[in-house]
């Protein structure tokens, strides 16, 4: 058995200790030694096993999203705009988040973000911000319907990811559910028959992570608003106004004009900002929510407020730019990138493909895109390159879809691919690579095993023991309304049905 101090002298573990601290690295080495004593690994594998464990503990790493999913749940959903990133940096120190610099007295917390949200949706009498959309719905149910009934269609009792379900969330608040209609069809008369003196509100949930087609029927907000009780519309994906490219996605402005008393939405989806829950609607209802004791527990921090305000004032966050990217421009970029890689001796081809919105928005909708096709064996090494490049494996090839890739990132992709193909490897720092890459990328030949399937049930997340991965594994514990967790064949894989069936069920990578 190698001595502990000898293992800790490994240069990779020394580098990891510089990032994670020596006590954590030593504990990983001791645990690996115990595995070796038990016979589960060979003594010479102790350092590698320790590194594999430490890789799971490292800080988040930058990733170039070439999956073709604009809002990839496992990759953090919406990337922040440069202005939002600058706002976060400015707010990292002391800031006037709850202080009036003119008077020297306490000010309204997050007044800038609240003002920006109100300006973005003039039809809202008042607005409030909590830490995610599920929290917004829980706050509404607690403040408006605890001990009372929430009337909701059976077809809208959805699961939002990682096993969290809307009915469970609502019941946890002390409200009672009055389910109406059926899975595929619900009528206005169903709601009307269920409404009584014990009704807190009618809930309208947009099923943003799946589609039901065929013999179906739903009741729109404008019809529900005629029933004489408040209507709470959970629009989920965060559109504040209509988006012509996504005609089936509801938006806050239209819901309010249609008579919704309260609208809840996400900040980190189609809005393109940080994770946040947005509440917009009638002044009296928003004030009840704002003054409820639970609101304090759901309060957002200063960094979220700064990022959200900057996003709301930004004319085109990255998600919006990616959504509206010109397919011809994407094709030209793919052609140029493929030509650069071929000149470096890498077999690369520009191909037309389809991208998906993802992240609990526009289920079934795909967008024309351009991609570069590479050997599938590059998938694993690119995921552990610096920066990491995550694509999708399709038809035994690796596709790097450019719709969600910033134009300035094309050169970084080219550098990472050519370095790997040449055997140089732009390795991730020790202690931050994936579990399948304890020493960083070591060239194409050493990573041939990285592309095995993540598992028959679609599990595997963003890294398996051998470095394998599908572009979208099961959703993480945050559990906000992701489409990416609802479309595997067994209900556990992630992704958008019909867009990339091989990958988004979690069986490729």
Automatic annotation (TrEMBL):
Keyword Acetylation carried by entry: no
Modified residues (N6-(pyridoxal phosphate)lysine): 269
Signal peptide range: none
One Gene Ontology biological process: selenocysteine incorporation
Low complexity bias (residue ranges): 480-489
EC number: 2.9.1.1
Name of this protein: L-seryl-tRNA(Sec) selenium transferase
Record organism: Sphaerisporangium rufum
Lineage: Bacteria, Bacillati, Actinomycetota, Actinomycetes, Streptosporangiales
